[in-house]
Amino acid sequence: MPQKFEEYFRCYPVDMMPESIKKEDANYGGKIFLPPNALNKLTMLHIRYPMLFELLNEKENLRTFSGVLEFVAEEGRVYLPQWMMNTLHVQPGSVLKVTNQDVPLGKFVKIEPQSVDFLDISDPKAVLENVLRKFSTLTVNDIIQVNYNDHIYGIKVLEVKPESAFNSICVIETDLETDFAPPVGYVEPVYSKQEKKKPAPSTKNVMGTMAHSIDYVNIAKGAADTVESFHGQGQKLSGKVAKPVKKADVDLEKLIVSGEAAPLTLPFGQLFFGFPLVPPKIDETVGEEPSSSHVFSGQGQSLRQSKKRKDFKQHESPKPKVHSPEVIEID
Fold first, then answer.
1. Per residue in 259-274, pLDDT tens?
2. Among 42, 52, 75, 188, whose CB has the most other CB atoms within 10 angstroms?
3. What is the Cα 90 distance to its own chain's centre?
4. Contact call for residues 115 and 153 (beta carbons, < 8 A)
């Protein structure tokens, strides 16, 4: 049965390490500094890698787990990150019991950020993956500290799997699934459905900005004043008198061109750049009375289709042809 490493050390925060061996980023990790004689004892006991330790405050009965970063501390001392000092409720110079333990490899961890500022990180999973490289273990109810972009974030460990008596897992060389709980102080936004107000139907013909651009009022007035091209009355084959067609009365006073533009609904992917303005063609002969001598004009057509009659007099033959009664000629 292998023997266990079990020693008592006085604990100090990393900030109190001598400048020659001090590491600034060690405060935001999960590893401790032990003296060189601890390495000799661990080697003699054949403690296998990774070397994981249980840190116990017997006075408060508080514990956590960690790895070791270096064996450079002074004899009888152990240096801890500040968040470990807070977790164990110890002061500089307090006595800690350090024991090596075999912590199971982790498969799952659920964490809870201690501030809503953690939501400002664009990719928290990538940041956490990079930060966990400085940790060897994660223990339930520990509040670790993460330094990202010169901002310190507190993260509490809520749950770990697989479950064990240690309530801790090893995060070295393992595939770890991570779940995030809502940050402390986070309030879920309340979304309310907004009722769309239907526009009230207008009693007048309201024209928008397009009416201004094409001068619709003057076009409507000009259309009402057009001269009729054909005069007379229509006749029915039945002999009944045709009813005259009434003109549509256009009340120009009801046209309002100062209103808002009506919504233009187009299918997806179609753009609208306005209607083309095509001015009407003006007929110069409009308004002239047709002369009685030229009511019907045109050219006649022959069934022979060999010669086109330009005039009725030209088609008359100078001498009448005499035919025998037995011969019939059809023009």
1. 566 677 888 888 877 7
2. 52
3. 49
4. yes
- The single residue listed with the structure tokens 């063609």 is 281
Torsion of the alpha carbons at 283, 287, 289 and 290, rounded to the nearest 10: 20
Mention every residue, 6+ apart, whose C-beta is less than 8 A from residue 97: 6, 7, 8, 54, 55, 56, 57, 58
Structure tokens at 253: 């006073």
DSSP letter (8 states) at residue 128: H
Kind and range of the H or E element at 69? strand 62-70
175, burial (CB in 10 Å: exposed 0-12, middle 13-18, buried 19+) = exposed
**Whether the Cβ atoms of residue 170 and residue 50 lie closer than 8 Å to each other:** yes
Q: 143 to each of 28, 63, 111, how far by Cα in Å?
A: 11, 13, 9
pTM above 0.70, yes or no: no
Could you give the dihedral angle defined by the CA atoms of residues 70, 75, 81 and 85, in that order, rounded to the nearest 10 degrees?
A: 150
Output the CA torsion sign for 264, 267, 272, 275.
negative
Name the amino acid, one letter, at 258: S
CATH numbers and ranges of domains, the chain: 1-102 (2.40.40.50), 103-186 (3.10.330.10)
